[in-house]
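Render this sequence as a predicted structure.
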Amino acid sequence: MSNQLETLIGFNLLSSGFHIGTSYIAAHDTKQYQLEVAEEDFRSSMASSVEGSEDLVKSQVLATRSYGTVYLARIPHSRILPPIIAVKSEILSDSSSLQKERKILQTLSGCPEIIRCYGDRVTIENQQQIYNLLLEYAPGGILSDLMRSHGNRGKLPEADVRNYSHMILKGICYMHQKGYVHGDIKPSNIHVFPAPDGVISVKIADFGLSKRSGNGEIYVDGRLHVRGTPLYASPESVRCNMNEPPMDIWSLGCIIVEMVTGTPVWSCTTMEDLLHKIAFDEEEFLEIVDGLMSVNGKDFVYRCLIREPDERWTAKMLLDHPFIVGDSKPVVMIDKFFPFLTSTPEVSHH
């Protein structure tokens, strides 16, 4: 697709290969949003030592983002850090987003379901000061990779969906309790860590758009807004720029639908259509997963995707939901509000 400046429903979007359904889009500027593909192929480069910092060795470019470049790296003489780490690098004068991310990750360092930060370093590369954020490396890639590798057209078994949702939810709950909103929960920001015994763990990463809850303007100006990735944006964030904890729960619900069906919740051809659907359409999400999830699983999705943020369940409430705790007794609300779902299979025992 060509790069072109498009005016859509009251604001400008700088498009760089927008492709609804397979690309994951990030927005970082309050006036003009840079849409970028968040799932780029890994690109290799020759290993080289960083000039002026003999102990930090960058070897491979993992990704290029609006905030800088992500490298595979190592610190050979460290007795504390793992042998391989990920490093986000940007010119020091342009690194405010990475420095903010470091501070947030330090605050959230007590949660196993959130990516670990090992500190930062300033190096001299090509006669420029470079800010480097040292992070835990995910050898399993991202959740999108895991879905594609599973087969069955990207659909995951409900037992796996439950386990991954539980881990993501614990990370979200910890973050919210610490007073932060992630603001860009999506499959490419969920990193995968396979263990030698085959058990897979997932962790939340990429806190560049995170903010303090309660800190930000809410306005209704007749325009539709986007912060983060539109495919996972909540109705209130699109309608009135309300970016608070409930938006992370909505994003989790979208991820669960995608893990179950193998495709994103929304299928649109234009940004205008997508944002209008998110803001105003009464999508029957449970019909999408009908026949693919247990009654409790569908109820969990419903609790995440309630359109009114004040009625949407919190992370703490969802951690006690039967779908997460493995209670096989079906919840009762499905029968009352969605009678067409009563014939779905019983929740599996795991």
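Summary. Residues 170 and 304 are 14 Å apart (CA to CA). The chain is about 30% helix and 20% strand.
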